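Entries read sequence, tokenised fold; example below:

***
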Amino acid sequence: MTSTFNTMQTLKRRFFAMRNGLLADQMRRAGSNFRIIFGLNIIQLNEIAADYGHNPALASALWDNTTTRESMLLAPMLWRHDDFDLDSALRLCASVTDPEVADIVCHRLLKMRPDADAIIDSLASDSAPLMRYTAMRLALPLIGNRITPEKALEIAAAEIETKNPLTLSLATMLRSEAEFFLEEPD
């Protein structure tokens, strides 16, 4: 346990050294749910992730630190998509706390999974808007590859009807992408 504590302590010091107070303040004013925000950007987090590599134990410890934005964003960068079975991937999605975290989870972990379509199906019908957001975020880069445009249109149409402010712009984007794939070539 000591080595994890020391690693976490080292990471937190690095977060602190790289902090961007202006961005952190801006995120707080915008209503971020995180109690601790260092204001690191994705490029900085990618650099840190490269230093630690694949480290599921550290990723789990970071994921459990739900009060700190950078911990939640860094964790998916330290896992691999095959570190999870389908049920574990769905539990991970259920513990997503923020759209920004959902974006990273989808981009770094879920879109490469062979069962991404099953994850989308499960999350798209969830009652929680953040889970539906996650489903659409995962579906977006997979349209025309592993998700049919028709399926994407179905998900988008259902979500647009909810008029949920969290999901509405993403649902509109998903619909536009699906329609693009369905256009007849000239």
